[in-house]
Amino acid sequence: MTIIHVEDVSWRRNGKYILNDIHWKVNKGEHWAILGLNGSGKTTLLNMLNGYIWPTTGKVTVLNEPFGQTDIRALRKRIGWVSSSLQERILATQKVEQIVISGKFGSTGLYDDRSHLDEEKAYTLLEQLQCAHLQGKEYGVCSQGEQQKVLIARALMADPELLILDEPTNGLDFIAREKLLDAITLITEEADSPTLLFVTHHVEEISPLFTHTLLMKNGTVFSKGTRNEIFQSTSMSTFFDKNVIVEWKFNRPSLTIPE
Ligand SMILES: Nc1ncnc2c1ncn2[C@@H]1O[C@H](COP(=O)(O)OP(=O)(O)OP(=O)(O)O)[C@@H](O)[C@H]1O
Ligand SMILES: [Mg+2]
Q: Whose CA, among 6, 16, 119, 192, lies 20 to 30 Å from 111?
């Protein structure tokens, strides 16, 4: 099954191409890391996959649903999404479990038909993300790392087929970041786990759980492929317009600028 197929896509705003000439295919069983400098178009591309913006030219198919012939609202229910814009919409006074359960309804507000089964599922998800102890706490008092996990549990509440995490490790300390990566790894090991798209600025987070990497530069795909194909010193130096050396530590890439 093809999870994502983006064919010759562009997106123009105010006479300027924000995205251009995008070709990208994600198959079931793959997990992708997405890397690119600020403003390279990562979030815009993900917004397009969610149907929040419409391609100016080209064709987008997500979860076998070709855009233009599909009910975007129904499609969105099959996609879990965690981003900073979601974080801003969460009420600080809401209880952690309420937030997780709200993922089932695709809303961030209140709802009234929550069942015992929903509560159990929310608890299981919090457990899976190693934060069951947050039950009963207000979202606002949770640490940033805890908040990210709550939002990921929320996104998983609707059993998404595609899980999009846009810079989930932003602002996390070294330990919290590794814990979050561990939790994400566990999710991908579950039966029927969602296909993962993970945006980061930190290449050392691109652990073996990610089968592939997409490099975005100036609104287009600079390159795409397996981790080993992508993390080569020569191509990375062209990508960053800077001489960089790729090294591998514990099967994760790291970048250094030589003196
Ligand atoms: N609605 C819009 N109208 C006009 N320009 C936009 C719009 N949305 C995004 N852009 C521009 O598109 C470019 C790409 O933005 P985008 O948010 O996709 O970058 P990004 O790769 O996610 O960056 P970051 O790493 O900082 O999150 C930026 O120059 C941004 O200003
Ligand atoms: Mg972004």
A: 192
Q: Which of 112, 129, 158 is the last residue of a domain?
A: 158
Edge-to-edge order in the sheet of strand 65-66: 16-27, 2-13, 57-62, 65-66
C-alpha distances in angstroms, 151 versus 163, 184, 232?
12, 12, 34
Q: Is the CB of 251 under 6 A from ligand 1?
A: no
The range of the structural domain enclosing residue 151 comes to 85-158
Picking from 109, 127, 158, the residue at the C-terminal end of a domain is 158
**Cross-strand bridge partners of residue 80:** 163
Q: What is the pLDDT of residues 116-143, one digit of tens each?
A: 889 999 999 999 998 999 999 999 999 9
18 lines ligand 1 (CB under 6 A): yes
Mean pLDDT for the chain overall: 93
200 Cα–ligand 2 center, Å: 9
Mean pLDDT, range 101-122, rounded to an integer: 77
How do beta strands 162-166 and 195-199 pair? Answer: parallel
Q: Is the CB of 40 under 6 A from ligand 1?
A: yes
Q: Which residues of 70-83 are buried (b: 16+ CB within 10 A; e: fewer)?
A: beeeebbeebbbbb
Q: Measured from the CA of 46, which atom of ligand 1 is nearest?
A: 18
**What is the pLDDT at residue 259?**
82
* pLDDT bracket for residue 87 (50, 70, 90): confident
